[in-house]
Amino acid sequence: MCRLIGSGNDSARVIWSDRPSPSLLFLSPHDEFSRRAPDGLSAGPDELFAKAFRLSPDSVVVTRLADRVVVRANEALCRLWGSTPEQVIGKPTLEYSVWVDEAERLLFMDALRRDGEVVDWETDIRLADGRVLRMCVSSRLLTHQGSDCILSVLRDVSEQRRTEREVRRHRALLQTVFDTMAEGLAVFSSDLALVHTNPAYRRLFGLPDRPFSWPDFLAGLELVRADGQPLPVSETPSMRAARGEFVQNFEMGVRRKGHPGTTMAEFTTAPIGSGPDGSAQFIVSVRDVSGRRRAEAEVRAREERLRGTLDSMMEGCQIIDRDWRYLYVNEVAAAHGRSKPSELVGRTMMEVYPGIDRTPLFASLREGMEGRNRLRLENTFAYPDGAAAVFELEVVPAPEGILVLSVDVTLRRRAEEAIREANAELERRVAERTAQVEAASEELRRSRARVQSLFESLPGLYLVLTPDFVIVAVSDAYLKATMTTREGIMGRGIFEVFPDNPDDPGATGESNLRASLSRVRQLGAADTMAIQKYDVRRPDGTFEERYWSPINSPVLGPARQVEFIVHRVEDVTDYMRAKTQLAAPGAELRIRVEQMEAEIFQSGQNLQAANQQLEAANHELESFSYSVAHDLRAPIRAIDGFSNALMEDFSAALPEEGRRQLQTIRDSAKRMGTLIDDLLKFSRLSRAPLTREVVPTEPQVRAVLSELVGTAADRPVEVVVGPLPPYDGDAGLVRQVWVNLLSNALKYSAKRAQSRIEVGCSEQAGERVYFVRDNGAGFDMRYAHKLFGVFQRLHRAEDYEGTGVGLAIAQRIVQRHGGRIWAESAPERGATFFFTLDRARS
Questions:
Q1: What is the rounded CA–CA span in Å between residue 355 and residue 362?
Q2: pLDDT of residue 9
Q3: How far apart are CA 795 and CA 792, in angstroms?
Q4: How far is 472 from 563, CA to CA, in rounded Å?
Q5: 432 alpha carbon, distance to own chain's centre
Q6: Helix axes 410-456, 587-650, angle to 10 degrees
Q7: Residue 207: φ, ψ to 5°
């Protein structure tokens, strides 16, 4: 819109433009002011023009074209530059503002010179204070006071452009939100013209990208209500919105004709004002609820299945709401209360059981209800007829209130009480038997001590040998006569301790004694030897001449096998020396000889009596050992039998802890039985007959390894078997040595990432030394003296199973073969067991 300011042909005609661009003050082309310096302007424009120039809201400036000096400037420009008109007039514009882009200014000037004027040129102007403003510039060439000048009008559009950018950004953001919303959105005009849709809406209804008629498209759809009944097109949300009826959350099903499947959708419509053409518009929001409806159907189906599951549960199940009203009760729970579900559902607990709200049970239920805590408790329910039942209850918070699960444990509690009574009775019997066993063991120890003391203190010279001639007992008198110690000869072969005198080429004592002992072992009868010259080695290593009168007697076992040989001797050295002097007659000498013969005869009688006492004591110990074993086995069998009966008859009614305790009793009984068997096996070992033969060692070891490693197939085992020469011994007994040593090696290396077992043989000091080495747990050599004791263990039973008899058995077998056994080890660095046997016969 333009306004004409002033009138007449001689007045300046000022046109004011209301466009968004800066208002341009210019003169009509026929005015002298536009082409030459009119006298009116140079002498002073009329008052109306001057006021318009001065009060214009836009910055207006007249500058000389040649030097860009300011000729005229209004107040708006002075405010922009932060100066007064007096400071600005006559100064170049460069002191107050410059174009940021000089190249753009040159283009502007070229256009101005070419066309005489430039309108609405936007550029960035930098002011003297450093600010950069976006300015819209309109300029026109004119002549003023004889000089070519430029009239420029400048408007600051910085804020306007920022606002426009923000509006565009918000429009883009809204468009992005509109296009990316999961809900389908469509804008319609009141005549049902489709203005805009987002991708979700188009995907939902399969809309084409080309223009189409919405009513025609609706005609290709089959519409149904939420209940499945047909829906007329006139009742659709869009049609109703066109009539001014807007809906919220209206649900209907949509199916395109000729396409399978129905989409259930929820519609909401709302007016959104007018469009550019002034017509009313409304928006349709659509949400696909097919998945939700399917999920709801699945939930209903799950609820039905859950209800069926709850109905078929063996436990009682009750659902109680926050008003203590029964919402659900299955048949089992109703039966617990001797009622029916229909008598409980819909009623409150207080109505069904008056006064229950004052009981500890109700307090626990309230804690679960209000505190949302899961609780387990036990309740004894008293029936009106005086009967009672015990129930285990579990209270579980539920959305409706609480879920109560109940199990009738009355029979279980009775069974547990019976088990407790049985356990108490078993413990009493075990305590009694334990006391009896301890008393018997103490008596056995005292008897052994008495027998040992009796034997050792006998006045005669006695040795007790195993059938393979290993010394197992010796009297003090024998030690004194042979200048030996008990520690130095126990467990060693008699011929190792008492060899022939190497300085006597005619010595036959060892061979004669070996022949006599072999006859006793073979025939099981006593053998009296002639007086033998059998020199004794002194502690300094020299030999002293001695003469002996030996008698070798067997100690027989239950099967009449030789278990021990009693070697009794009489030192007749003085007699033999005196006998050599009989050639010199003399009454005194004959008397002395006769006395010595009488003493020898009496010693023989004493030896015979001592042998009988020793044999009786041995039979007594044998009988006592079998009696103790039998008496121990009987209570152990009773404990295991009662425990097994309880497990079989009441296992289903027992809690897990009760079953665990019963299993512990059974395991302990079996372990005690194993200990008794191992003890008897150890005691019988010395009585087993020894059958010597040359045995190939390597096949025997590999057979044992094949059996043992097969039981450890669940872990890697590396086995190294070196050269193993044959041995001379009892194949069955020595095999047991290999079994015990190799099984120990596998057991104590089980916790290694890979077990390593090494078997070999070396020559040491003229004898063959077999060894078994492992990389297992090892042991402290300070406790090595305990290794071969019966029931002695260097590791906890919880870490490594066993009874502590295996090494004791191995030692007894090795000693019976005239060998020895020992070990070397360090904690966590494995162990090596060495043993020797007699050399194999060539």
A1: 10
A2: 37
A3: 9
A4: 12
A5: 45
A6: 170
A7: -75, 140
- Nearest 5°: CA angle at 485, between 805 and 447? 50
**How far is it, in rounded angstroms, from Cα 641 to Cα 669?**
10
Residue 727 pLDDT more than 60? yes
559-580 per-position pLDDT tens digit:
778 989 999 998 888 878 877 6
Tokens of 92: 């170049």
Say what the alpha-carbon torsion angle 142, 145, 149, 150 is, to the nearest 10 degrees.
-70
Interval 309-327: pLDDT, tens: 777 778 889 999 999 999 9
The mean predicted confidence, pLDDT, of the chain is 80
Phi-psi category of residue 702: left, alpha or beta, with phi > 0 → left and psi -120 to 50 → alpha: alpha
* DSSP state string for 162-229: HHHHHHHHHHHHHHHHHHH-SSEEEEEETT--EEEE-HHHHHHHT--SS---HHHHHHTEEEEETTS-
Structure tokens at 550: 């030996």
d(CA 839, CA 697): 12
Whole-Å CA distances, 425 to 393, 412, 654: 32, 20, 18
Token readout for 10 is 């001689």
Helices 731-748 and 806-816: crossing angle in degrees, nearest 10, is 150
What is the DSSP-derived secondary structure letter of residue 350?
Answer: H
- Rounded Cα gap, residues 826 and 778, in angstroms: 5
Q: Are 46 and 11 in contact (CB under 8 A)?
A: yes
Please name the helix (run of DSSP H) or strand (run of DSSP E) that holds residue 825, with its range, or none. Answer: strand 821-825
| Helix/strand/coil percent split, the chain, to 5 | 45, 25, 30
Residue 292 tokens, joined: 């939700």
Cβ neighbour number for residue 319 with a 10 Å cutoff: 21
Residue 230 per-residue DSSP state:
B
Give the pLDDT confidence score for residue 234 in this predicted structure: 84
- C-alpha span between 759 and 722 (Å, rounded): 6
Per the CB < 8 A criterion, the answer to whether 398 and 320 are in contact is no
CB 304 within 8 A of CB 284: no
Structure tokens at 565: 């040989």
Residue carrying the six token digits 């090696």 = 745
Nearest to 731 by CA among 806, 837, 820, 808: 837
d(C-alpha 281, C-alpha 320), whole Å: 52
